[in-house]
Amino acid sequence: MIHKLYYPDLGLVNTTEMFQQAMDEGFAVPAYNFNNMEQLQAIIAGCVDTKSPVILQVSGSARQYAHPALLPHLAVGAVAMAEALGHPIPIALHLDHGSSFELCRDCIESGFSSVMIDGSHLPFKENTDLTRRVVDIAHDFDVTVEGELGVLAGIEDEVAAEQSHYTRPEEVEEFVGQTGVDSLAISIGTSHGAYKFKVKPGEEPPPLRFDILEAVARRVPGFPIVLHGASSVMPEYVSQINQYGGRMDDAVGIPESQLRQAAQSAVCKINIDSDGRLAMTAAIRKVLAQNPGEFDPRKYLGPARDALVEMVKYKNEKVLGSANRS
Ligand code: G3H
Ligand code: 13P
Ligand code: ZN
Predict the structure, then answer these.
(1) 295 CA to middle of ligand 2, Å?
(2) pTM of the predicted structure, to 2 decimals
(3) Could you tell me what percent of the chain has a pLDDT over 70?
(4) Is the distance from the beta carbon of residue 157 to the nearest atom of ligand 1 less than 6 Å?
(5) Distance between the two ends of the chain, CA-based, in angstroms?
(6) How far is the CA of 231 from the centre of ligand 2 (A)?
(7) Is the CB of 62 under 6 A from ligand 1?
(8) Are the beta carbons of 265 and 217 closer than 8 angstroms?
(9) Which residue puts its alpha carbon closest to atom 5 of ligand 1?
């Protein structure tokens, strides 16, 4: 049994003030996924260094991987680490792609300050009803809730979608009004993972559907929008992986210019998982290729962590605009 924990007692915050500031000032709060200690350390170090608020994001499977009982204590450690580094920042602990009411409730009762209920694969009415149930219990504890309308192509954690369908702006007002969600993930052409588009060499990926984003923002002015699948699949990491024995030939992500444009719009939260995985994998491959006898995990996880710190700083400063906001 997991002891009940309440997020304010852990030093965490929900996303309300972060999103208000992001909307007012025209930037996006980074939501970095993590599964282990080194990723968490790097995210905190990079966000403290750049004075950025941060959403620590955990999928259902990542929570199982870390262990549900350990996870909130990692978040407590993250808060303590930020303080010890000399610049406390707002930190939220968020469930990414919650697949059921029960999972969201378990997270709310074990220290999460924010949850996503992903009913995007359901018919509108079922998505609305499920999301409403999660909002009801979450708001009793002042936990914020992210819903989703529209389907991203690819595999969402425990939620499979063969094909994307863009968010329909005409459904947004009703969904937000009926559910009471605090933010909404939409589908405008991004997808999860490192292979987002099939493009020929030298070709640009198709642009995101900013017209849909704008139509959504017109329907719900001032309401925080979330962009999933927002890794740019940074080419330097992909080529380092390929240079040191990996094979990720057709990896391609969202161009940074489009992410910058999104961050300045109603998009208040940008989700990044794949780029962090690539940064760490590139560093680990390099160390192990150059030092085949190395077997101390600190010798390859340490450089991987350093690479992720640099990536986080770069994203906050140059792409999301979240640096120097806290
Ligand atoms: O959107 C999904 C995230 O990238 C998490 O992926 O289920 O492999 O932890 P995961
Ligand atoms: P990427 O795979 O593009 O990093 O997207 C992550 C994400 O949306 C997590 O919910
Ligand atoms: Zn996602």
Answers:
(1) 31
(2) 0.96
(3) 96
(4) yes
(5) 37
(6) 6
(7) yes
(8) yes
(9) 59
* Coil vs helix vs strand at 115: strand
How many angstroms from the chain centroid is the CA of residue 56? Answer: 8
304 DSSP assignment: H
Mean pLDDT of 27-33: 99
**Is 118 a residue of the active site?**
no
Give kind and range of the element (H or E) at residue 300: helix 297-314
Tokens of 230: 């927002």
Ligand 2 proximal residues by C-beta, below 6 Å: 33, 96-97, 192-193, 228-231, 271-275
**Signed CA dihedral, 150, 156, 161, 163: sign only:** positive
pLDDT at 266 over 50: yes
Q: How many A from CA of 177 to the centre of ligand 2?
A: 26
Task: Summarize pLDDT for 63-96 with one digit per residue, the tens.
Answer: 999 999 999 999 999 999 999 999 999 999 999 9
Of 9, 24, 49, 96, which residue is the catalytic one? 96
Please determine, for residue 161, whether its predicted confidence score (pLDDT) is greater than 90: no
Cβ of 118 below 6 Å from ligand 1: no
**Distances 239 to 76, 274, 278, 283, 295 between C-alpha atoms, Å:** 36, 15, 10, 11, 24
- Burial category of 290 from C-beta neighbours within 10 Å (exposed 0-12, middle 13-18, buried 19 and up): exposed
**275 within ligand 1 shell (Cβ under 6 A):** no
Mean pLDDT of the chain: 96
Nearest atom, ligand 1, residue 158 CA: 7
At a CB cut-off of 8 Å and minimum separation 6, what does 193 contact?
Answer: 154, 155, 229, 274
Which residues on adjacent β-strands are paired with residue 116? 146
Q: 311 falls in which pLDDT band (50, 70, 90)?
A: very high
Distance between CA atoms of residues 128 and 47, nearest Å? 34
Pocket test for ligand 2, best of 227, 233, 274 (most atoms within 8 A of CB): 274
Which single residue is written with the structure tokens 């220290």? 111
- 128 contacts: CB under 8 Å, gap ≥ 6: 119, 174, 175, 178, 179
Q: pLDDT category, 162, cuts 50, 70, 90?
A: low
